[in-house]
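Honest question from a wet-lab person: if I give you the sequences of every part of a complex, can you actually get the arrangement of the whole thing, not just the pieces? Trying it with mine:
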Amino acid sequence: MGENEIDEGLKVYGFSISPFTRKVEMTLNLKGIKYEHIEEDLNNKSSDLLRYNPVHKATPVLLHNGNPLPESLIIMEYIDDTWTDADPIMPPDPYDRAMVRFWANFIDTKLVPAIKVAVLRECEEEEHEKKIEEAKHWVKTIENVLGEKKKFFGGEKIGYLDIAAIWLIGWVPAMQEAAGWELISKEKFPFLSAWTQEMLSHQVVRDNLPHRDPLHAYYVWRLSGFKPELTPVFK
Amino acid sequence: MGKKGEVKLIGSWVSPFVFRARVALNLKSIDFEFLQEKAGSKSDLLLKSNPVHKKIPVLIHHDKPICESLVIVQYIDETWTHGPSILPSDPYDRAIARFWAAYLDEKFFPALKSIRMVQGQGDEVEKKLKEIKEGLGLLDDALVKISKGKPFFGGEELGYLDIALSGFVAWIQVREKTFDVKLLHESTTPNLAVWVHNLSAHPAVKDIIPTADALIEWVRLNLGPPPPPAN
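Yes, you can. This is the full assembly:
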């Protein structure tokens, strides 16, 4: 297969404003793997998407040679296991692999929800201070995982956990801008700040972040208190 | 294999998540020290080893803690490469096994767990039972597709998805007794019913799988009656 040919058997059913879709596409792009992107309207899901992900009915779904696969972190490991010519995103050592899997799960299940609640004030007013402290605690936790010395979570190169953490780069700034205040400031979180700059210096990362305007508009809408019936499914 | 003291597992005999780690360790014939947590309290070692979640299981290997049951099972497979392989060798099969294991934790277990909270509230119980039955239906279909006629999801031997589901078997049986309903049964999930039989007889499982009665007694002693319905 020539380098510029799209693998006819490789498609990503995605929702471009969602970090879950972007994680998958960043992984493919980092490895130089060509694919076809099919944009889904989550208020009007395609019959293909529903057929390929009947359990969750969500994006992203990778379709490889007719075999469908949902769930962004699972897709990322599948890509790593399948396209073995390109540099791996997972570390080789079993303990390091366990750590990046643990922290990627932490980002999705603890860090991101806590940041959203704090910045978007999705809690009772009297709880807000507590929620801010909680979010800061989790941000500090991931900052300590990065530490002072490492350029990336993956060490010298972008790896699985860097990709898993792109929400902090592409989405948190838009959210903070819409909300009018910074939870994750440069002064309080210098390692994450340095990491953000390091990541943004890579074309592949910049190309895979969502455009600011639609994202900003989305967060302004969320902040205005509308209960979204037609929320984009971030999976 | 593995010197005594080198591998420790912090957990409890009632936890379906701890159960996964124990089956994986047994499957690989790894000697380990089982540090049983007391119900209703968390040991200093647990809090120190898992400060983020403060939950069991925690595997401690060479004094380094590893948390989250599915992360632990994969770690065991990748570290002790003798003995049966837990993850499938084909990347797509591996991904599908991971998908269903994640489904168990994100969708199936919350439904199974939370039905206790609505005990006595007819409509709510029916809703939760429907969710649980649908989940088991999906898993029954998946078993047929994935096992291709062999006894386990992993084929001839226990694999990742067998281990992931194994911890819930006894708790599903608890719900069957409490709510007088058939869930894992030849009339509802014919393939899983056979699978349960095969699983329960497996050497890595048979000596450690709890009975539903023992779990019901533990709940009675440690959790008390379910909460009254909200007004």
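Two things worth pointing out. The mean pLDDT of chain B is 94. Chain B is about 55% helix and 5% strand.
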